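Propose amino acids for all 358 sites.
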């Protein structure tokens, strides 16, 4: 069976779309654009589903320092043959920004694999706004981001569901963590952007609907975003956290403002992992506060800082990607990091944390 055959909307997917149509935000989104793309995906016939996370490609068209970035994206797609790709931002890093965006996303667009992005803090720093960039991204074949919704902060906030025969088994929430903000009285201090209240309410509404359609049981969910949430710093310092694997070669750089999203995740009890990019010299998995805090592996070239090799900082820098594998009917999931050249690291089987619904 061809990949696109089993990725088409199935009967269970139709049920999922029915649930999604109950979300006012998503309903508005459907009415805003005529191009409605399927956002509900199915497991392969063997019951598996593989998600490839790319991050921080920082691509610049025509710049040879970006060669490694483009070759990395191509190699990861070819080696893993994923069922879904999520790029967690800082996709580009210079002018011509629109051409850069199209070129680095071309391997995804040509792959026939559905894909989506969360924009990074650098993407809209080279002429085009976040909205303009998302228009370009949405026009590329295979993109399943949802169009912007009036009243919902950010661009590209999206919900992707993974369904089995009995309905939705997993939900992937994609959040736009923005660029940076200038705080009154603190103009001299850089502050990364933060998740806004409208995004938290958008997530909460969706989470409640999915849980309601599942007999009151939260759906296993993962949140993808570019900038990590502030609580990751507490997790690194906590004696109650467990560092499971990976490189921790720089301090995390979240927003200085606490959005409250982590607290909402805890209250809803469905998000089991927060997957980010942003800090290029981190690719670790931290178990803290009933949630896995997971960095992707830097997928870029040499247009920006990056120092990770095979083990920690190294003269021989290697780009790569993180992979997630889900199995139909199973609450745990697998993750690993693939490096260019075929090296596999950090093979983990992560059990679903205990549910905490308030
Ligand atoms: Fe970056």
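Proposal:
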């Amino acid at each position: 069976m061809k990949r696109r055959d089993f990725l088409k909307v199935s009967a269970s997917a139709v049920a999922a779309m029915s649930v999604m149509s109950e979300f006012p935000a998503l309903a508005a989104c459907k009415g805003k654009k005529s191009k409605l793309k399927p956002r509900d995906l199915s497991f392969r016939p063997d019951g598996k589903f593989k998600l490839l996370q790319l991050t921080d490609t920082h691509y610049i068209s025509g710049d040879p320092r970006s060669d490694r970035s483009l070759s990395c994206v191509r190699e990861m797609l070819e080696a893993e043959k994923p069922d879904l790709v999520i790029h967690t931002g800082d996709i580009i890093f210079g002018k011509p920004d629109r051409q850069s965006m199209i070129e680095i996303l071309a391997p995804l667009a040509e792959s026939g694999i559905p894909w989506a992005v969360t924009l990074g803090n650098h993407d809209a720093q080279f002429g085009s706004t976040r909205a303009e960039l998302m228009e370009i991204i949405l026009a590329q074949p295979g993109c399943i981001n949802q169009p912007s919704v009036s009243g919902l902060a950010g661009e590209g906030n999206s919900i992707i569901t993974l369904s089995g025969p009995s309905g939705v088994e997993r939900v992937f929430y994609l959040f736009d963590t923005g660029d940076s903000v200038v705080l009154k009285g603190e103009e001299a201090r850089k502050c990364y952007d933060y998740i806004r209240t409208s995004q938290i309410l958008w997530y909460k509404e969706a989470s409640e609907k999915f849980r309601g359609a599942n007999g009151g049981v939260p759906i296993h969910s993962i949140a993808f975003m570019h900038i990590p949430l502030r609580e990751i710093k507490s997790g690194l310092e906590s004696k109650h956290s467990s560092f499971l694997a990976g490189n921790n070669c720089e301090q995390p750089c979240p927003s200085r403002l606490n959005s409250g999203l982590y607290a909402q995740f805890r209250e809803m009890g469905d998000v089991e992992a927060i997957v980010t990019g942003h800090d290029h010299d981190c690719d670790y998995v931290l178990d803290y506060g009933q949630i896995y805090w997971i960095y992707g592996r830097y997928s870029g070239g040499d247009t920006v800082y990056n120092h990770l090799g095979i083990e920690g900082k190294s003269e021989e820098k290697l780009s790569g990607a993180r992979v997630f594998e889900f199995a139909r009917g199973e609450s745990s999931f697998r993750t690993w990091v693939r490096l260019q050249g075929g090296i596999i690291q950090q093979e983990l089987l992560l059990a679903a944390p205990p549910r905490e619904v308030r």
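The first strand starts at residue 40 and ends at 42. Residues 197-213 form the longest helix (17 residues).
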